[in-house]
Queue: 2 jobs
Job 1
Amino acid sequence: QVQLVESGGRLVQAGGSLRLSCALSGRTFGSFAMGWFRQAPGKEREFVAAISVSGGRIYYAGSVKGRFTISRDNAKNTVYLQMNSLKPEDTAVYYCAADRTSATRPVVASYEYDYWGQGTQVTVSS
């Protein structure tokens, strides 16, 4: 059984930084493409960033490009989301997701992901 556990979310002031982590257990991490999504109150879940199995291909949503960095450490079974220059509109529950079938490309569509974490709250105060 694959489990994803996010951590690192908290309250931060605008302009600050956070690093989210997501640890995968139950299967070989190196066989999954990984992604981050977020959902703000009253809004639909939206794509944030994705990384291929090798880490060689990455894709970002336009709203976070240049501020957020996704990375993975296959030896630690963990994917990260470094978030800099945070804005109040980044406030959301952040979810990581794992896709077992798309090895060579970053996965943008939420329906392609097979496993999801429980989410971690990020709140950015103005």
Job 2
Amino acid sequence: QVRLVESGGTLVQAGGSLRLSCAASGDKFSNYAMGWFRQAPGKERDFVAGITWNGGATDYLEAVKGRFIVSRDNTENTMSLQMNSLKPEDTAVYYCAARLDGYSGVIRRGDGDMDYWGKGTLVTVSS
């Protein structure tokens, strides 16, 4: 089992940057593929970015490609999401999620594919 805690969410102006962090504790962090998801007001939770257990591969929602970068540090048990050129439509609660991977190297985008979730951190982008 792994516990996930997100941080870094805040109010930022459009065009600005923000870095979210996810701290993991419990089970061995490298056992898990990781992902960032977000839920905007009145909408379903969506996949934003994913990263394999060793950081060797990443995947992104088309709308954030070229603006967001996901990374992880298995020695520090953390995952980050660097968000640049933020837009008002990026406003959402951002969730960190983990999937027990078995070193498959596969990134899954489904909400139901993830095994553990953090409680989320709110990002608000003002226009």
